[in-house]
Amino acid sequence: MPIREFRLERFMAEHEFRTSYVLGASDCETMSVQELLSLDPGSENDLLRLRLGYAEPAGSPSLREAIAGLYSGVSPDEVITFNGASEGIMAFMSTALQPGDHVIVQFPAYQSLYEIARSRGCDITLWQMDEEKGWSPDLEVLQEQVRPTTKAIVVNSPHNPTGYQFPESDFLALVGFAEERGITIFSDEVYRLLEHRADDRIPAVVDVPGAHVSLGDVSKAYGLAGLRTGWIATHDRDLLGRLARYKDYSTICNSAPGEFFAEIALRHQGKIVARNLDIVRRNVGLLDDFFTTWSSLFSWVRPRGGTTTFPRLSTGAGASALCTDLLGSAGILLIPGTVFEHDDAHIRFGYGRLDMPEGLERLDGHLRARFG
Ligand SMILES: Cc1ncc(COP(=O)(O)O)c(C=O)c1O
Question: Is the Cβ atom of 160 under 6 angstroms away from ligand 1?
Answer without folding.
Answer: yes
